[in-house]
Specification:
Blueprint: E1 4-7, H1 32-37, H2 41-44, E2 49-53, E3 59-68, H3 82-96, E4 102-110, H4 119-133, E5 138-143, H5 156-160, H6 172-179, E6 183-196, H7 198-205, E7 213-215, E8 224-227, E9 232-245
Parallel strand pairs: 4-5
Antiparallel strand pairs: 1-2, 2-3, 3-4, 5-9, 6-9, 7-8, 8-9
Length: about 250
């Protein structure tokens, strides 16, 4: 099947259709940086938002990215804060009028009923080409490995560097990035942070959160930490920085 892929700026009437049911775990949607900024990307950065439609015009996938100044004062390295930090930098740079020198992918999301059709790779290629066509030399991505939730106790650094016999990453999403030309750079140890009360985490996951210590949560890449005596649960998720040279 052929898909039409453009920026949202080229087809702004599709903005409302981008928010289709997806497979993100509910607790991740409560990352405070995401709550503050993710929903604004379509309005603020439509030229960096990619949208894919099927032959009937139905939106089947989206890809968000943001321009930011990686090589600005006090920066220069991909941040340990990963996804959260790069979103903050992008909006901060926009407010201050700081010229961007790099683009970061933020998400590639495919409708649940269209998974397995290669759309993730297509959207990643579109994000790369869109950044390149706008004069950027690099696209970076704080990647959330799709298989890591099956091994929440494994260190992310060790997991990210595992390879198959052909030399490609064991993880499917990291493998897609490497096949597209990406290079695994580093681990962002605190890429997304979700903190809430025990009641909130019970609602998000269906788990009791009634004992202190680590708790394995569905689709979590690492365990959450429960402190019932303080009525708080914290989840700090590592992601993997991947760099895509565009020239």
């Amino acid at each position: 099947m052929e898909f039409m892929i453009t920026t949202l700026a080229e087809r702004p009437h599709l903005a409302e259709s981008l928010w289709f049911p997806d497979t993100w775990p509910e607790f991740i949607l409560n990352d405070l940086v995401g709550l503050a900024h993710f929903g604004e990307l379509d309005q603020v950065f439509p030229e960096f938002t990619m949208v894919a439609t099927d032959p009937d015009g139905v939106v089947v996938a989206r890809g968000h990215s943001v321009p930011f100044a990686l090589h600005g004062p006090g920066r220069g390295e991909l941040p340990a804060g990963g996804w959260d930090k790069v979103l903050v930098w992008a909006f901060q740079d926009l407010r201050r009028g700081t010229p961007a020198d790099t683009v970061s992918a933020i998400d590639v999301t495919v409708r649940a009923d269209r998974l397995g059709q290669g759309l993730s790779a297509v959207l990643l290629a579109a994000l790369r080409e869109n950044a390149r066509s706008r004069g950027f030399a690099e696209l970076v991505a704080p990647v959330r490995p799709t298989g890591k939730h099956l091994e929440p106790d494994s260190p992310m650094g060790e997991y990210a560097l595992r390879t198959r016999a052909d030399g490609l990453p064991v993880d499917a999403w990291l493998r897609t990035h490497v096949r597209a030309g990406g290079v695994i750079d580093s681990v962002a140890p605190c890429s997304m942070t979700v903190t809430g009360s025990t009641a909130q985490w019970r609602a998000w996951t269906g788990l009791p959160f009634d004992a202190p210590g680590p708790v394995l949560v569905p689709d979590g890449l690492v365990p959450a930490h429960c402190s019932p005596e303080r009525d708080v649960v914290s989840y700090v998720e590592p992601n993997v920085w991947v760099r895509h040279a565009l020239r």
